[in-house]
Structure formats: structure tokens, C-alpha cells
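[RESIDUES AND BACKBONE]
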Amino acid sequence: MQLKYGCNPHQLFASADPMGAPPVELLNGQPSLINWLDALNAWQLVLELRQSLKLPAAASFKHVSPSGAAVATPLSAELAEAYEVTGRELSPVALAYARARGADPKCSFGDFVAVSDPVDEAAADYLKSVVSDGIIAPGFEGNALKTLSEKKNGSFIVLRGDPKFQPPARETRELFGMKITQDRNAHVFSEADLKDVVCGELTAEARRDLVLGYTTLKYTQSNSVGFAIGGQMIGVGAGQQSRVDCTKLAGSKADVWQLRLHPKVLGLRFQPALKRQDRINWRVRYIEGDLTEYETRALREALVGDLVPLSEQEKRDYLSRVTGVSLISDGFIPFRDNIDHAQRHGVKFIAQPGGSTRDADIEQACREYGIAMVNTKIRAFHH
């Protein structure tokens, strides 16, 4: 299959060809190479979440890493308001995607979507309202395919994945005149990987979130650390050379997610004509607080009433009450500074492979902060 282009538009020739029975079918649009990479990684992620957690799953991908991933768990009224879905009909598959996209809406802008279950009309209607490049799903019900095929003036990419496809045991890529082959990472994470609890106790909700997080990081560019709560990722720190930088990045994203539920943030009132995505973006920038002079003027114009900043003290006070967050690390945690930073973000549960020479230091830090930790003994690097 001829692709739109490779990684960049000047890489004019690019193709995607199945090695046997095709795992996916193109129904609409013309994918680029990155679209294909996002689709195939995201598709595997949601299938494995569906298999492990028995709930409809969704992922929002950008540049071959998930901005968010989630399963279909109910939304509180505050989260529905923060996600701009109050009053909207959300089927289970639409709910899973609303959570996945809502994790980091700034990064999910222009994403590639994957869902584990057929797209119904409610999900298609929600997808129609957001800025996205394409979707991969096992099927489309009613008018869902027609609705999505008309999106972006007919250029929205629609792929149908085969959930019964069995991938080859080994994967090969070519790079700079070399063919590189490895066994496929066929391990599907489940609660069976959470048996070795080093300290503390895991709740049922934490077990779900740790499986969700481990599966998500399996398809995230390494090094990576993820934060999860309530059946969704709320912060993904991907592709950093230092693990503590992954922890800090994921933690900062998780803090922004938490602060989107702050009363002052939910209390922002925007001009009626302001678009949905603009409202979401302004809430995030209001939380981040480092507004440029231009942004400050623009936000004042976007609001009904005065712009009253969210102070650093107000942020600290609100975040000091956060708890019950799960942290997942795709490789072993090498130094306790990861734990010291994690506890600042309400982390109470950790899953990591273990195996560091400083495992005793990591365990001691978890005990000091009252954090439950499990060693899975399985690394989940992905490149």
C-alpha cells in the first residue's frame, strides 16, 4: 500500500505491505508512515487492555507514544465538566476514549485513536467533535463509518483492525543497511504479574490501574514512567534518558490533570462563542500559569469577568490532598529520588520490575511514605 509519505513530507516514497493475511483494512483516508506506527501500536495496546481488564479500552496516540489510555469507568460530574462532555451521551467505548483523550488534551490534539470495541454512533458523534487524525477499531455500527469518513473533508483515516490476527513470533526492521530481528514482546500484562508485593497492600482499584499502566508503557517510547488513577492514565513521561526525569515529567502532567478539577478552574466562565477545544486549552494554560503577555490579554478576552490567577499556594494546598495514585515504571527504579518525587504527586501504589542493586533503598523509601510496591520482574522497554 502506497502511503501519503514517510516520517516527513519530503520522504516521498513510503509503503505498508502485509507479510501475510493483513491485520488491518483501510476504509478511508491515506495514512502516512507515522499514522501507521501510531495505529498499529495503539491497536495492540487496547486489545491487551480489553483482554486483561475485561472493559472497553481506548488510547490516544501521538508520535508513537500514548498521550492517554483508559478503560470505560464512570465519570464524576466534575470530570465530565473538565472533559467538556456534560450532557453528552457516552456509550462505553465513547467513555473510554473521553477518558483517554482527557488525560492530556494538549498532547492529544491531532491524535490517532484506537478503541477495543466497535464504534457506535455515540462514539462517532463524540469523535466528530474533536481534532484528530484517524481511528482504528474492530468495527463500526450504524452510521458511524459514514460520520467518520466525512470528518476532515473526507480525509479522516479509518482503519478496521482484525482482533483475531495472530502476529509473527519475531519482528524485523531495517536500519542503515542492517536488518535487526527480535522476538516479539508477546507478554500480556495482567493481575498475575502483581503477586510479588514487596511492601504494603494493593487495592482492587490499584491492581486495575497498575495493569492499565504497565500495558500502556509497553507501547510507550522508553524510558517511561506513568501515573494512573480511576481507570485512566493521567500522566505519561516518555522517552527520557533519565528515569527520574520520566517521573518528574509524568508527575507534572498528573498535577495539571488533578488541578483541572480545582474549583477555580471549573469556575472559569468563557465567552459563549469560544470553541470547546479553546476552552480546554485555556484551562490548561491557566493552571500552568506561565502566560505570555499575549496569552494574558487573550485569556482576559476569552473570559466573562476578571482573570483571577490560580496562585502557587492554592495549587500546593489542593495537590497536598491528592492520594491513591498509581505509578508504573517500564524499567527498574534505580534511585530513591524517584520515590521522593513520586510521593509529592499522591502516589500510593507502585509497580516496577525490580532488580536494581538499590532495591533495598527503594523499598525503604516506599515504607517511609506508606507506598505499596510490587516487583513484576518484567521489563517493558519499547523502541
About this structure: The chain has 14 helices and 14 strands.
